Amino acid sequence: MSDTPRFGLGVPTATEGMMHPVPFADIDQAVELAVAAERLGFDSVWGNDHVSTQRYVRDEFDAPPRFYDPLTYLAYVAASTTRLRLATAVLVLPFREPVIAAKQAATLDQLSGGRLVLGVGVGAYREEFEAMYPGRSMHRGRYVEEFLEALSLLFSQQRASYSGEFISFDDVESYPKPIQVPLPILSGGNSPGSRRRAATLAHGWLPACLTPGEYADGLHEIRRLQAESDLGKSHPFEATIQLVVSMHDRHDGAVERFRSSQVHKHLASLGASTLKGRLGDSLESRNLVGSPDEVGEQVVAYLDAGVETFAGLLFAADSVEEELEAMERFSEQVIDPFAGAA
Q1: CATH numbers and ranges of domains, the chain
Q2: Cα–Cα distance measured from residue 312 to residue 294, given in angstroms and rounded to the nearest whole number
Q3: Which of 3, 13, 119, 274 would be a feasible disulfide site paired with 270, CB 3.0-4.6 Å?
Q4: Are 243 and 290 in contact, with CB atoms under 8 Å apart?
């Protein structure tokens, strides 16, 4: 169990229509939330990654949501903050090509003085990949594995070459390298493939909306895979999770706020992907929902399960003003007490 949990904010790079209503935050407000997170004691900000509106979002909202590129956004936030870790939750690797992505990541790590964290994954909505690459056949999980192998070479070798099923390049000299050695890369997702990649190819695990028991089981599996893998034995490792926060003076008030929020609808939409097979119980049991004391107890339960970082926390808020109020309350009633007890 960690005595000093870290708390990160999920920023609205691509949350409109999914975790938040349309409209929610313009670009200035999205930056404002990151700056406020640093002031309120959050450790990090985590931007998600979407390129095209999902069908279910188009059905609900007439206006298209605004999706901002997370790496460009984080570069701007780097200049507006001093200590926040700048993270993705998650960068969808099948949208990207590794040589260019490595250059972007190294540049951002240089610009921020070594504050970048790359949470990466397959992507919850295959329809976005199909919109970008119509007719292209790809096993996205294997592509992510090749991508991570390629990044490792590009970040560490003077001249890198790679030849795989989906990715190939030859004699690429990519400089400067990231400041951080290694640059932290977290495997995002709840699937067995995500856990395998966390154990052998990444420096941490970033699932979402698991119960403490489910998280402990997944982390145990990762530790077993690490023990069996030469690749995983020497890696630093960060145990993280992404959850929704709905806090109220009364338990039933917190539940009501959560169930009426846009983010609750979003989680329900993940029943065929990220949360497949996990929606038989209430969503409250796999998020931070309740009174301040209850949320504190839930945080402890996750710490006991092995969580070190509460990454990309998503607040059940349908306006930026509500989000700021919820952040301030969480800072005063959760972050500060844990920091004081350390």
Answers
A1: 6-341 (3.20.20.30)
A2: 20
A3: 274
A4: no
